[in-house]
Amino acid sequence: MTERIRLHIENLLRDAPRTRRIVDLQEELLSGCLDKFADLTAQGVSEEEAYNAVIAGIGDVDELIGKTRHSASDRNLLGPASSSLWPMITLIYLFCGFWLDCWHPAWLLFPIGAFLQVLLVAALAKPGERRGPLTGALYVGAAVIYLTFSVFTDQWAIGALIFMMAVVAQQITRLVRVWRDDR
Amino acid sequence: MSIASDLIRGNTDMIILAHLSGQDSYGYEINKVIRQASGGRLDLKEATLYGSFRRLEEAGHVTFYWGDETTGARRRYYRITTNGRIAFEQSRRDWNEARDIIDHLIGGENQ
What's the pTM value of the predicted model, to 2 decimals? Predict the structure, then answer.
């Protein structure tokens, strides 16, 4: 019967990512359920009734695992989508610049990219997520700095490096966030 | 019980800290003490209990350590921190004050 309890708990947490938090939760939940089961059966409750009481007493764990599950699903979709957007735009930009020698209108790709990024985040980010506005602000900021720098220095190609820096900054903040969730 | 349980749920953290200010303890034991002390009227769900532990941990009001159970699963023991004691005393004062105000406003018991 204790094996049945173990299986039930494993099943409850099946979809949750294997973070430290979830592994701890699973052990704590199992320990609590086994304690309760042993206590009830020691009081003369039948194993079947005790099992039912233990399972009913667990309650809704969605909220407990929600926080970590949430960040896993956005890693699945938003992460690859937005991290493939910027290398692609950079490649097209460099191609237009070096190959076709049209650095000047090609820089428009970056403001367009920033706009696409904001749309992407708005479409894919879950409600209540902080990264949406933050990422949007990062790229809009990068675009403003780029335009200002390039208009004053006329170095459109060199200024474009700011976007690569923005991509790197974004990846670093994502890694930090993932690392914090895993702790 | 259903309306009362909503009122009580908002104070789960304080109730747990009250128990931990006496001694270190783990989930099942805490829940059992709560059940007995409330005459069986309050029986927290595991999920509510562990949600509360996580909040208290994140706030720095408790720390945890694992028990050394060799069979089944290890227990996760909780210990109240100095900040936890301060927060508990504060919530207890807040509660007493709020209860006093509400009692005055609604005319106390059975009115």
Answer: 0.59
